[in-house]
Amino acid sequence: MMHFRAVRLASIVAAALLIAGCDGQPEAADSPVAALVESSATAPDAEASQPQDDDLAAAMAQAVSAIEFKDDDDIGLMVRFHFATHTKDFDAARAFYRSLGYTDGTGGFPLTNTHQMAQALGMFDVCQYELVKGEVISLPGSPGANIDLLQFKVPFNPDPPYELPNHLGMAYAALHTTDLDADVSFLKSQGVALLSEPWGEVGSRYVFFRDPEGVLYRLVETEPPKPDPSKNMHLTGMPYIGINVSDLDRSLEFYAKFGYTAVTPLSQTEGSLEEARAWGLDRPFKSKGADIAIERGDRHVLRLVQWLEPFDPEPAYPPPINRIGINRIALLVPNVDRAVAILKAQNVPFLSEPAPCCSGTGEDGTAIVHAIDPDGTFLELVGAIEKRPPLPHPAHCPPLEIKMPPAEV
């Protein structure tokens, strides 16, 4: 099961790279990434998966070796792998996201893991975390919209997500639709909470809604609607994730260290009371911001906004990373150790050292680590590492126990 999970995980990464190759161009059918997708799509049973796992690791290494680093400070960021959101009722949340169109998913994740993995999530006083359930859920045809949906058992934090989309930190994600009115009608029929009625004009409209936990999404329509009565929802992708900052210039400098060097200032700097209500606000607003993007791979976008009026000074979620709501984004780099060394040399803080991920053996050839932006937002780096001997389990802890979810039927 552990190797099967690695195969499935590799297929998600490969699909993202395939749609927009490392240089931003579609991959050729005979490319290393295309081969990775083909091999991972035929993942076998657990007994046969070890050789394929090794083949996949080699194919992934070959794919990312095609990256041309711009300079010695380029960490090679390629893909936004997913963002993570946590729930107190996985089954209810999964049913909700399936109704939005998130019909695909990758499970098989260990429910417990090493102490290093707990530390990577800021759980320093926990011997092992434990999940109730977890799945990377996907919108078919749009790997950039992946969501890592998790329900923690130990430690569990019941605190609610951010109340409004102007809160510092990762406040919401945008979802693109081709028929806003039809989607709003469906959401209302399901009892989904909206912050307002849709705002804007034909070709440029939006509305905020909440998932069952209260997590905010901005549903955006960027052209005249294209009705399709056969669908309840008309989502096509996740154009950006909204990150609120206290100092835009400082954050632009910070994110440039990760490769977000394509900067497009936002034209809107203020909003009327009527538009403010679409954001759940009770007075006109002023802000400044920019869309930032990487210039290779999937060329994904983050939207940085500094709210001037009204400004909410409450800080972003503190560690550990188990709060209900959007907690972190996972970013794929060729080599985690290299990326961490480059970023530490530029005074980027990290929550922990890299943790081999995610089989539970501590012997993985991949790892995760969380950088922390100036306002406390967590950026998870995912990528290869040199395999290393596993660290001993803490002496004061019960013996390491890796629990796996029930086998998929």
Structural description of this entry:
This protein has 409 residues and is an alpha+beta fold. The protein has 2 domains: 1-66; 80-409, 2,3-Dihydroxybiphenyl 1,2-Dioxygenase, domain 1. It is 23% helix and 29% strand. Strands 5, 6, 7, 8, 9, 10, 11, 12, 13 and 14 form a 10-stranded mixed sheet that branches.
The global form is globular
> At the third CATH level, what is the topology name of the largest domain?
2,3-Dihydroxybiphenyl 1,2-Dioxygenase, domain 1
Indicate the low-confidence ranges by residue numbers. 1-8, 22-27, 32-56
Q: How far apart are the termini?
A: 13 Å
How many distinct beta strands?
A: 18
Classification by helices and strands? alpha+beta
Approximate strand percentage? 25-35%
Let me know the CATH homologous superfamily of the largest domain.
Answer: 2,3-Dihydroxybiphenyl 1,2-Dioxygenase, domain 1
Oligomer: single chain
**Average of the residue pLDDT scores:** 88
Order of secondary-structure elements: HHHEHEHEEEHEEEEEHEEHEEEHEEE
Number of helical runs? 9
Largest sheet composition: 10 strands, mixed
- Which CATH class of the largest domain? Alpha Beta
Helix content: 10-25%
Task: Round the Cα radius of gyration to an integer and report it.
Answer: 21 Å
List the domain count as a whole number.
2
Could you say what the CATH architecture of the largest domain is?
Roll
